[in-house]
Amino acid sequence: MTQPLSEQTIALVKATVPALEAHGLDIVREMYSRMFQNPDIRDLFNQSHHGDSGSQPRALTGAILAYANNIDNLGALAPAVERIAQKHVGLQILPEHYPHVGEALLGAIKAVLGDAATDEILTAWGEAYWFLANILIAREVRIYTAQKDTTGGWNGWRDFRVQEVVRESSVINSFILRPADGGAVMAHLPGQYLTFWLEIPGHPPVKRNYSISSAPNGETYRISVKREPQGMASGWLHDEVKQGTILKVAAPAGEFFLSEHVERPVVLLSGGVGLTPMIAMLESLVKKGADVPVQYIHGTHNRDTHAMRDHVRALAATGKAVQVTDFHQTPLAGEVEGRDYDAAGIITDEWLVANTPVAHAVYYICGPRPFLRHAVSTLSLAGVPSSRIHYEFFGPADELLAA
Question: Which residues are known catalytic residues?
Answer without folding.
Answer: 98, 140
